[in-house]
Amino acid sequence: xxxxxxxxxxxxxxxxxxxxxxxxxxxxxxxxxxxxxxxxxxxxxxxxxxxxxxxxxxxxxxxxxxxxxxxxxxxxxxxxxxxxxxxxxxxxxxxxxxxxxxxxxxxxxxxxxxxxxxxxxxxxxxxxxxxxxxxxxxxxxxxxxxxxxxxxxxxxxxxxxxxxxx
Length: 166
What we know:
- This protein is mostly helical.
- The protein has one domain.
- Helix 1 runs antiparallel to helix 8, helix 2 packs across helix 8 and helix 7 packs antiparallel against helix 8.
- The N and C termini lie close together (10 Å).
């Protein structure tokens, strides 16, 4: 299974693009600032080049791992590619991999399928992480809901983009 670089790049841009919308004052920005204890003045003091740069690096990491979460063909590819005889194109493992890819190489490769698994990842990974951090930071439900909601939608879009590129 090959990595689709354009899909990874597209998914990498999702957190920034969605963040501009999600955290806009007319959407959830004011609620988030209040729940986070941030004022508009204190938010202006950040070095935004660093914030956006590091965000892109982290988003790239998420996009790469999202491929493993939403593209199921990678699972049997990883099993068969690392067999001792896999370098031989006529070996049992190589022939089985070719057969599986010809039969199922494009199965479950749609935006909706990727979005479904991205949503599950958001609910089962991002929500617990955000929730646990928020509890220890003494943040309330609104803080958890705004931030976790963002990551659930973000993972859904990232998963959909990656999975749609067969």
